[in-house]
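dumping this here before i forget
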Amino acid sequence: MSIVDPHGSHAVPPPSESSDSSPRTQALEPHRVVVVDDHELLRTGTRRILEETSGFTVVGEAEDGEAALRVIADTEPDVVLVDIRLPTINGIDLARQIVAERPSMTVLILSAYDDEHYVRESLAAGVSGYLLKTMPSDELVRSIRDACDGTGLTGSPAAWRGEKAAESVSSDDSPRLTAREQEVVRLVARGMSNKAIAHQLGISPRTVEGHLNHVFDKLGTTSRTELVHFALANSLFAREQPDGPGAAQ
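structure:
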């Protein structure tokens, strides 16, 4: 039986532990998704798109940030799609909290705003990608699946912008990264979350976000995947040198 939240959220509890847990069964299990959007029509449309596609099942919905946290706690999804403008908790702050508390979950912003500031803020908060509601449904599904599989959002608008930025800037013209920014990029390249990077470097997650925002601005990239590809393609790791003892602050 599903749980219906009085604030407009809906949740389907996770499968019972008695279900078959063989490797084959686990491999065939669909990605469990929670959709967070304050517009019921958009939540319904997103649910329909995903449930008509093999490999996904929507286990919960929420219309605001606080309801989303309750639904996520009830259902433990694999993927959370978050609108950027929400009541009670805005989408970026909600995504940041989910990533910090549940780093194994894939969190994606699904927004109507194709805005560079929103993109950078979202990706610095640790989300796996920034997708637009105007995307064709097949492209949306492909991007979500890519994020779940860890292969990068090759079909996302953010990826297109990052590819164009990388093509337009040569390694000779690339801005210098500080020693600390290089450290952050190296740890991002290892697949570490902002929280894990903060622990590794002895700084706060907010400071990690700040460094990532600076790097995104300097390099013209808009996602963690694009950032790593750009850094490797332009030999930034090999070329940059520490700026001195105070550079890593």
